[in-house]
Amino acid sequence: MTITCHLRYIVDPYQLPAFEAYGKAWIRLVERFGGKHHGYFMPSEGTSNVALAMFSFPSFAEYEAYREASFKDAECLAVVAENEKHRFIVSYERSFFRPVFEDDQGVKRAP
């Protein structure tokens, strides 16, 4: 069963370019570890310090394997170190969801 991780970030609104670079790196890294990233969503109108991200893995076990491997991966550790150095993420919440799609009877899922 597919599992989708939803992240809600409180970010420093004065460091959005640094957070955006962080997000772009994680999109590639999640995909490298077998996940499907659905993107980062940066503040635009309204609240200036909330950003979102969503990505999926085929199962919770595969998500856990990604997490374990990412804690040992040099590139992942370097991306995390950038936030630790510059503190552009103030806090975050992680939630998990099970996506629901209409069946394939004439309805195409987005790639």
UniProtKB/TrEMBL annotation:
Listed InterPro entries: Dimeric_a/b-barrel, NIPSNAP
SUPFAM superfamilies tied to this protein: Dimeric alpha+beta barrel (SSF54909)
Family annotation (Gene3D superfamilies): 3.30.70.100
Origin: domain of life: Bacteria
Domain NIPSNAP: 8-100
Designated name of the protein: NIPSNAP protein
